[in-house]
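Q: Here's a chain of 374 amino acids. Please give me its 3D structure as tokens.
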Amino acid sequence: MRTWLDQARPAKLVPRALSSQPWYLIFYVTSHCNQRCNMCFAWEMLNSLKRSEEWQLPEIERVAAQFPKLYQVSLTGGEPTLRADLAEIIEIFYRVSGVQRVTIPTNGFYPDRIERLVRRVMESCPGLVLSINMSLDGIGEVHDKIRGLKDSFKNLVETYRRVQSLRKIYPNLHSATASVVTESNRDSIKELLYWVRDNMDISNHGMMLARGDVKSEEGKATSKEFFIEMLALHRELSRFGNRLRDAVADEYTQSRIDTLKTERMKDPCLAGKKLIIIDERGNVLPCEILKVLAEKGETDAPELGNFSFGNLRAVDFDLSALLESERGRAIRKFIEDERCWCTFECAQINNFVLNPQAYLRTIVRAVTNSPIEP
């Protein structure tokens, strides 16, 4: 939430927010990854494509052209920095879609690559807000074990150090970290939260609950009760000292807690409308959760199968043809009717930012100075 507060540009944000077109894209640019995280929900797709089968730049231009009101794109994978042309991909979205914010979720294993990426993008896209979001799941060997690769923690810290130095040159550059709470780090997550507070000067530290089809037992999510406890602690360790800004972050945290407790989305979900996911094979999805729920038989709409709108390549890159098809409308109606719920953080913050009632709740919280209720 802090990154949204720090980076929001009302003149650019509001027209895109009010538009009926998608404004937030999660785009899988590669299936390749150098780590084998025990909580990875996408483990089956890792390294499943040849380099020649992945998105080519002319295709990405066509993808970007489908999002004329794009506010944010998250370029993910796999490990996105494994693509040598990642800077060119960002430049395409900046030029074609006019995107305002780009997020790179990364394991931070390659400091040199990330430094080169930042320098090029900040020079070639001067109006862009770029956020380097580093995955941090423990301290030292705890992190390395979860990530399945030696020196992962050491390299991430070096990446953080370089990004911090670059922030002194580029004011539109932000650094962030994110931790996935699992059975693997349950006993050390509190220590990690304090370590981040005491050792890192970042825009935001995100807390996520392991989700989806996790391969290993140790990578599975902790109990909802424990995660709620950690959300409340994290919020206390991340206070701004500004009543309004703290009220916004508190209300967003409360929204996440209430969703977990009631198993119902606190803010109406706009996945499939304002938030779109395009995977490494060109499939268009409303979120990262429904496909897994459908495969486990945990939805009440077997007729919707895997909840994919369809493949973008199969319709000659006509996104609206997929979203406005009979199937597309049925998927969006399923979500609109609140027949699912989840802890998908990207969807939750998207829903919160676009829900007018969330702003009213925030104002009440700021006036009353109400505490979070775990």
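Q: Can you summarize the key feature?
A: The beta strands are 24-28, 72-76, 101-106, 129-135, 173-181, 204-209, 275-278, 283-285, 310-311.
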